[in-house]
Amino acid sequence: MIEIKSKREIELMREAGKVLSEVHERVGERVAPGRSTKELNDYAEGLIRKLGCTPSFLHLYDFPAACCISVNEEVIHGIPDKHRILEEGDIVSFDIGTCYKGYHSDAARTWGVGRISSEAEKLIAACEQSFWEGARNAVPGNHLNDICSAIGNYAYSLGYGVLEDYIGHGIGHEVHMDPDVPNFPMRRKGPLLQAGMTLAVEPMITVGSKEVRVLDNDWTVVTIDGKLSCHYENTILITENGPEILSLVR
User: Where are the alpha helices (DSSP H) in the chain?
Assistant: First the structure.
């Protein structure tokens, strides 16, 4: 069942999203060669709490950190580690959730570490744009597949792989709720979109194969061919006036 959020619920999610937007911006400013992923996780967690939220992911399904931090071929669910030191030319994604008075926002960003390759720059830009291609379709009267198809078709048109094993989701008083939100065309229209729905839309694309595997830590998902991957996500509120991006305050 897809929930329609009340005005109160939407306001709580807006606050969670406002904090999350600031956390991503400030964490992104600290990405640099020589920093460990644990250092960046600890900074983000402290900032989340300072700004009045709690980290949504800490202990969720027993995940051991506040942020999923994934480097290069790691697509998602990277576990922060004091021994994982960022190097010039890496790309690193941060998937972070914030909870405000029981309501969540979820967003991901991928950053370059120092000077990165043109291939990496193009991948990051394409992943973000694929999100926007989908988001513009998050309007009442459309169907869920209008979002999914727009994301996938844009990424495919540029020659990128699109993960099928991991997808976006509804969000609200829980991090993961109905509906599932694939990043590729479905074989059905899917649910009719209505004002008050909230979705975490999160393209995950690769420069090579879409196939992935999970490392021995039972969390980190990597490309099977070892090629670069990228992750970009926002929490979207569907309104009568179009999509409102709750986790991106400009």
Answer: 7-30, 37-50, 118-135, 144-157
Global confidence as pTM: 0.97
Cβ–Cβ < 8 Å for 41, 31: no
DSSP assignment letter at 86: -
Q: Residue 144: helix, strand or coil by DSSP?
A: helix
Residues near 240 by beta carbon (within 8 Å), at least 6 away in sequence: 140, 195
Q: Are strands 242-245 and 161-162 parallel, antiparallel or unpaired?
A: unpaired
Q: What is the pLDDT of residues 2-48, one digit of tens each?
A: 999 999 999 999 999 999 999 999 999 999 999 999 999 999 999 99
Q: Give all domains of the chain, ordered by start, each with its CATH number.
A: 7-245 (3.90.230.10)
| Burial (CB count <10 Å: 0-12, 13-18, 19+), residue 61 | exposed
Strand partners, 235: 200
